[in-house]
C-alpha cells in the first residue's frame, strides 16, 4: 500500500506543515475561514487568539481528524486528508485541550494508547511499544505517575500524561491545544523545554497558547487568530506587539523585556 | 528562527524513592503477557468445571464422570477410550435435558458480557449494556406479538426480527439527529426502547390471561428453561463467531478511551468503526435474546466487575469477561432451577439477585478510586 506510510515527500516541497485556505463551519457559521498555516520542520509555532477564535477547531483540521470544507493540509509533501487514517496517525499526534475518561485506566496504559497506530489493530503492545511508552513518560516528566489511575490525577498531572501519550506516538507533527493551561510555572517551562527538544530532532510543533509571554519565550513563529481568520502571522517580534494585539484582545498591551533573556514580556491593562 | 533559551533551569530533581522507569518493575494491573494468559486459562478452566458440575446438579444427582461419559458417547469417543456405556436414563438426563440448557446459558452469558464491554467502551458510558440500542424491547415486542397476539411466526425469529428493527430505528434516528456520537446513540436507543416497551405493555394489557401472561412474563425476565440443541447452536455459534470477532477488537476499543477525537487522532475511522461494531453487537444480542429472552445484569455489571479486577485493557477484558460471563450465567441458571426446586424462577431474577450484591461489594472494595 503506497499510502500506508507517509513518505518524506518530494524534494521540491519545503517539508514541515503547509495548510492552505482551510475552511470549516458549523451551525451556519464559519469557524475557520480561509486560514493558511506554514510551520517549517524544527520549529515551534504558537497559535494565539481570544476564546472562541477557532484555535481548537483549526488544530482538529490540521490533525486530520476533521475534514475541512475547503483547503489542504500538507505534511512533508503529503496531503494528510488523502492519506489513510493510520498512516496519518503515525505522522501526526494531537494533545487535546481537555481529554478525560471515566474508565479506571492506568497512566502507563493511557500512554500505550499512543502506540496503537504503530502496530496492527489486532496485536497487543509489544516490548518495543512498552519501551517507547516509558521513554515518553520520562520525557514528559510523568514517570512517577506510571501506575496511577488517570481519573485520580490533578489537572496538571493529566496534562503531562496526555503529552506523554502524544510523544509515544513518535509523530513528525505534534499539535497541542493549550498544553500548559493547568501547569504551574515550572511545569510550564518544562513542557516548553520538552517541545524545544522535540523540534531539535526535526519534529514540527504547533501549539495553541493563551499565555502570550510563554509564546514569546518558546515559539519561533506565532499565528494570531480572531473570529476564525488569521490576523497576523510571523515572528514573535513582528506579531507580539501592541499595535497587533490591542485590537484583537481589546486590552492595553505593553511589551517589556525579560531582564535575563531579553525576550518580550507582555503586560496587560484594561483599555 | 533563533532557538529560544528557557530562562531558568528546568531540571526537576527526582525525589528520593521515586520509582524509576528504566529498572525492571512489577507488571502493573491488567498488563498483558503472562498475567493475562494466567487469567484466561484460569477462567477457561473455571468454565469447563462449572459446566461439568452444573450438569450434575438437579433433582436427580449425577456424578461428574457420568457427564463426561455421556458426552464421549455422543461424540463417538466411548469406544476408543474404552468407556462403559451409560444407562439410557442418566444419558438422556445429561444429553437431552441438562447439557443443552447449561451450554445455552454459557453461550448467552459469554455473548452478553462481551457485548456489554463493547457497548461501554464505544459509548464511554458506564451504564451502557447490550440492550442499549433498544434491542431487548424490540425483541420483547416481537416475542409478545407471538405469545400474546398469536402472530404466526416462530418465536425466536420474531424476537430476532424485533431486535433488528429496533437497531435500524435507533441507527436511523441517531443518524438523522446528526451522526453516531455516544450521547446521540444512547438517546436514540432510549427513545426506541421506550416506544417498543409501550408496545409490549399494550399487547400484554390487551391480550393477557392467566397462562399466556406467565409465558410472557417468563420470557420478559429471561429464561433458558426450554433450551434445546438448537438453542445451543444459535447461542454458542453466534457467540463464538461474532463474539470472537468482537473480542479481537480490543486495541480498537482502547483507542476510544479519551473520546472520539482522540480515537480519530490514533488512526481509527471513528464513524465506520462504531457503526460496524454496533451492528455486530446488535446481531449477536438479537440472536441471544431470541433464545433466552432479555436476561438483564450480565452485560451491564459483569464487565464492570472484571474491569475493577484486571483493569481496562480491552484485549484482556473482552475474552475474560466472555469466559466469566459464561460461568456466571451457568451458575445463575443452576440456582434458578435448583434453589426453589421443584419451582423454578426466571434466571433474570437470579442474575440480579446474585449480581447486585457482588457488584456492591466490588464498588465498596474499590472505594477511594475515582
Ligand atoms: N461543533 C460546533 N458547532 C457550533 N459551534 C462550534 C462548534 N465547535 C466550536 N464552535 C464554536 O466555534 C468557535 C471556535 O471554537 P474553538 O473551540 O475552535 O475556539 P478556541 O479558539 O479553541 O477557544 P478557547 O480559547 O476558548 O479554547 C467558538 O465560538 C465555539 O463556540
Ligand atoms: Mg480551544
TrEMBL record, chain A:
CDD domains: ABC_Iron-Siderophores_B12_Hemin (cd03214). Keywords: ATP-binding, Nucleotide-binding. SUPFAM superfamilies: P-loop containing nucleoside triphosphate hydrolases (SSF52540). Residues 17-252 form the ABC transporter domain. It holds the Pfam family ABC_tran. Transmembrane segments: none annotated. It comes from the Bacteria. GO terms for molecular function: ATP binding. InterPro entries: AAA+_ATPase (IPR003593), ABC_transporter-like_ATP-bd (IPR003439), ABC_trnsptr_F420-0_ATP-bd_pred (IPR022286), P-loop_NTPase (IPR027417). This is ABC transporter ATP-binding protein. It comes from Luteimicrobium album.
Amino acid at each position: 500500500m503506497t499510502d500506508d506510510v507517509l513518505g518524506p515527500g518530494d524534494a521540491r516541497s519545503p517539508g514541515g506543515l503547509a495548510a492552505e485556505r482551510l475552511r470549516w463551519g458549523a451551525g451556519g457559521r464559519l469557524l475557520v475561514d480561509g486560514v493558511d498555516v506554514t510551520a517549517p520542520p524544527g520549529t515551534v509555532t504558537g497559535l494565539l487568539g481570544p476564546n472562541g477564535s477557532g484555535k481548537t477547531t483549526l488544530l482538529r483540521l490540521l490533525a486530520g481528524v476533521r475534514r475541512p470544507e475547503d483547503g489542504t493540509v500538507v505534511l512533508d509533501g503529503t496531503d494528510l486528508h488523502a492519506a489513510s487514517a493510520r498512516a496519518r496517525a503515525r505522522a501526526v499526534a494531537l494533545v487535546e485541550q481537555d481529554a478525560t475518561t471515566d474508565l479506571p485506566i492506568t497512566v502507563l496504559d493511557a500512554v500505550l494508547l499512543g502506540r496503537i497506530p504503530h502496530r496492527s489493530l489486532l496485536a497487543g503492545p509489544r516490548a518495543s511499544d512498552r519501551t517507547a511508552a516509558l521513554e515518553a513518560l520520562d520525557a514528559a516528566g510523568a514517570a512517577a505517575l506510571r501506575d496511577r489511575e488517570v481519573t485520580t490525577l490533578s489537572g496538571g498531572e493529566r496534562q503531562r500524561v496526555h503529552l506523554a501519550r502524544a510523544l509515544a506516538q513518535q509523530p513528525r507533527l505534534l499539535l497541542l491545544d493549550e498544553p500548559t493551561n493547568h501547569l504551574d510555572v515550572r511545569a510550564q517551562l518544562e513542557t516548553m523545554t520538552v517541545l524545544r527538544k522535540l523540534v531539535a530532532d526535526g519534529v514540527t510543533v504547533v501549539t495553541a497558547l493563551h499565555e502570550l509571554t510563554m509564546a514569546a519565550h518558546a515559539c519561533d513563529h506565532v499565528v494570531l487568530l480572531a473570529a476564525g481568520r488569521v490576523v497576523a502571522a510571523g515572528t514573535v517580534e513582528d506579531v507580539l506587539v501592541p499595535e497587533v494585539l490591542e485590537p484583537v484582545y481589546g486590552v492595553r498591551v505593553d511589551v517589556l523585556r525579560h531582564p535575563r533573556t531579553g525576550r518580550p514580556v507582555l503586560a496587560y491593562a484594561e483599555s | 528562527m533563533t532557538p529560544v533559551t528557557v530562562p531558568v533551569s528546568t531540571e526537576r530533581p527526582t525525589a528520593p524513592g521515586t520509582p524509576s522507569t528504566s529498572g525492571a518493575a512489577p507488571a502493573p494491573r491488567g498488563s498483558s503477557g503472562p498475567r493475562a494468559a494466567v487469567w484466561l486459562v484460569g477462567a477457561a478452566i473455571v468454565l469447563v468445571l462449572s459446566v461439568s458440575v452444573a450438569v450434575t446438579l438437579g433433582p436427580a444427582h449425577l456424578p461428574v464422570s457420568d457427564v463426561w461419559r455421556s458426552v464421549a458417547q455422543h461424540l463417538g469417543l466411548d469406544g476408543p477410550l474404552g468407556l462403559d456405556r451409560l444407562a439410557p436414563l442418566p444419558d438422556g438426563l445429561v444429553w437431552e435435558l441438562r447439557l443443552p440448557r447449561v451450554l445455552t446459558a454459557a453461550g448467552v452469558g459469554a455473548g452478553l458480557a462481551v457485548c456489554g464491554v463493547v457497548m461501554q467502551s464505544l459509548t464511554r458510558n458506564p451504564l451502557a449494556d447490550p440492550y442499549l440500542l433498544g434491542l431487548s424491547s424490540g425483541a420483547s415486542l416481537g416475542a409478545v406479538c407471538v405469545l400474546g397476539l398469536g402472530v404466526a411466526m416462530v418465536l425466536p425469529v420474531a424476537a430476532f426480527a424485533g431486535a433488528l428493527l429496533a437497531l435500524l430505528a435507533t441507527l436511523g434516528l441517531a443518524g438523522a439527529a446528526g451522526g453516531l456520537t455516544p450521547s446521540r446513540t444512547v438517546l436514540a436507543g432510549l427513545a426506541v426502547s421506550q416506544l417498543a416497551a409501550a408496545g409490549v405493555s399494550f399487547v400484554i394489557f390487551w391480550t393477557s390471561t392467566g397462562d399466556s401472561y406467565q409465558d410472557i412474563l417468563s420470557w420478559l425476565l429471561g429464561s433458558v428453561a426450554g433450551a434445546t440443541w438448537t438453542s445451543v447452536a444459535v447461542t454458542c455459534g453466534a457467540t463464538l463467531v461474532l463474539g470472537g470477532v468482537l473480542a479481537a477488537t480490543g486495541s480498537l476499543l482502547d483507542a476510544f478511551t479519551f473520546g472520539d477525537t482522540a480515537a480519530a487522532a490514533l488512526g481509527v475511522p471513528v464513524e465506520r468503526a462504531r457503526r460496524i461494531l454496533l451492528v455486530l453487537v446488535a446481531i449477536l444480542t438479537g440472536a441471544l435474546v431470541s433464545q433466552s429472552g432479555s436476561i438483564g445484569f450480565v452485560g451491564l455489571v459483569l464487565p464492570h466487575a472484571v474491569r475493577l479486577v484486571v483493569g481496562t485493557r480491552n484485549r484482556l477484558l473482552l475474552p475474560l469477561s466472555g469466559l466469566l460471563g459464561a460461568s456466571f450465567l451457568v451458575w445463575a441458571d443452576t440456582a434458578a432451577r435448583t434453589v426453589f426446586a421443584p419451582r423454578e424462577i426466571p434466571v433474570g431474577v437470579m442474575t440480579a439477585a446474585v449480581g447486585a450484591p457482588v457488584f456492591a461489594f466490588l464498588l465498596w472494595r474499590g472505594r477511594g478510586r475515582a
